[in-house]
Amino acid sequence: MTMSSSPSPVSSSAALASRLWLFLGSAVALAVLPLLLAPLGEAWVRILDTALLYILLALGLNIVVGFAGLLDLGYIAFYAVGAYLFALLASPHLTDNLPALAAMFPGGLHLPLWGAIPLAAVVAGLVGVLLGAPTLKLRGDYLAIVTLGFGEIIRVFMNNLDAPINITNGPKGINSIDPIRVGGLSLGEPWLLPGWLPGGLGGFTLPSVTLHYYLFLLIVVGAVVLTQRLHDSRLGRAWMAIREDEIAAKAMGLNTRNLKLLAFGLGASFGGVSGVLFASFQGFVSPESFSLQESVLVVAMVVLGGLGHIPGVILGAFLLAALPEVLRQVAGPLQAMTGGRLDAAILRQLLIALAMIGIMLARPRGLWPSPRHEDRLMPDEGAR
Predict the structure, then answer these.
(1) For labeling, which of 195, 208, 266, 280 is most exposed (least CB within 10 Å)?
(2) Which SS3 state, helix, strand or coil, does residue 184 take?
(3) How much is the average pLDDT of 265-282?
(4) In degrees, to the nearest 5, what angle opens at C-alpha 144 toward C-alphas 143 and 146?
């Protein structure tokens, strides 16, 4: 008769210690990464900033697509809602075009980031619920088509709400957006560290892109913790039950209507927060930043990394956000080799497409898929 042995306290403490060291090592590596890339130029640190924004977007879409199994091709609309919300409330655009508002706020609208983030999360979440309400009975391709249309509607609205009242400034976009401020210090300007800091840090200057990196990293870590908690909760298990078989989940007593609306709302909130960070980081927003191509790119990040698996989604988002910029360094020499007959931008897109096709052929479940149910149910190697 074979009996499975329970893990000993020694092995449990060793596993906990290894996880702690892994966490500390990862934290140190992420903290020094922009400092190591700084000598190569600020462009490389800016790539990291952009990758973190896409990771936040992919984590939100993973709630909708990966957890609940609802194919959403209009997710970039929530990104646009958050970006334009902050652009309107933290720039002189509205007060310049609406005299009544200028009389109410003679100093202009300057909503701080810490007020904009929860506001954008709530507004984008409500927009997500409004999107989800008429699509509750749709599945698969039909749901994808409807959400795709919704995303395009938002972009067209942003592109045309410049008459008769100029709200979004149309295709010209909105500029002069306030930079992020932390404790009275602006992240739009370099920080000179005080001279009393140890380790030779005194007098060291942190550029603006590095300051944004640390803020974005802090928010992404919080988003990862939140999504992991959702995944392990009863709510997360209910979403996954709907993803596997909605009819069976409904027969077991789950309120699939409310659960799907909640998935749309929570996922949209992540997009709204990411939009606020994008607007403050760029200082400018326009409808071209929220095209259908961006929606497809975020979906590709989730699918390429591994549906429903948070580490895989992070890996997929980082690779697809950084790969185009890295291949930019390769496309130029290849264009020169062909005597300029190939356009560098088209060649770069070709290389990205070939890389994605190769990865999906080699890893059809994604680069880092979630463990299969049957794999998790296998007995431990130490079982006797």
Answers:
(1) 195
(2) coil
(3) 95
(4) 65
Q: Residue 108 corresponds to which tokens in the numbers above?
A: 């202009």
Instruction: Determine phi and psi for 210, rounding to 5 degrees.
Output: -70, -40
What is the C-alpha separation between 167 and 129, in angstroms, rounded?
24
**Helix extents (H) in the chain:** 9-37, 42-61, 76-89, 93-97, 99-104, 113-132, 140-160, 208-232, 234-244, 246-251, 256-282, 292-305, 310-337, 344-362, 373-376
What whole-number distance in Å separates Cα of residue 110 and Cα of residue 100?
17
Tokens encoding 285: 């927003």
**Contact of 289 with 76, CB cutoff 8 Å:** no
* Sign of the alpha-carbon torsion through 241, 242, 245, 250: positive
Q: Is the pTM of this model over 0.85?
A: yes
- Report the b/e string of 245-259 with b at 16+ CB within 10 A: ebeebeeeebebeeb
Residue 350's nearest CA partner among 321, 367, 370, 330 is: 330
Exposure string over 123-157, b if 16+ CB within 10 A, otherwise e? bbbebbeebbeebeeeeeeebbebbbebbbebbee
> CA 164, 170, 175, 177 torsion: positive or negative?
positive
Residue in 378, 384, 379, 382 with CA at minimum distance from that of residue 15 = 382
* C-beta neighbour count of 47 within 10 angstroms: 20
pLDDT (tens digit per residue) in 334-382: 777 777 677 767 777 777 888 888 888 888 888 888 876 544 444 444 4
Please tell me the distance from the alpha carbon of residue 378 to that of residue 381, in angstroms, as a whole number: 9
What is the rounded distance in angstroms from the CA atom of residue 293 to the CA atom of residue 287?
12
Q: Which residue, 124, 72, 74, is CA-closest to 260?
A: 72
Bridge partners of 182?
185
Locate tokens 């607007």: which residue?
Answer: 279
Before 34, cis peptide (omega within 30)? no
For 62-104, how does the pLDDT look when each residue is reduced to its tens digit (9 = 90+)?
999 999 999 899 999 999 999 999 999 999 999 888 888 888 8
DSSP for residue 245: -
Q: Which of 31, 321, 74 is nearest to 199 (CA)?
A: 31
∠ CA 235-238-241 to the nearest 5 degrees? 155
Cβ atoms 255, 243 nearer than 8 A: no
User: What are the residues whose beta carbons fall under 8 Å from the beta carbon of 310, sequence distance 6 or more?
Assistant: 59, 62, 224, 227, 228, 231
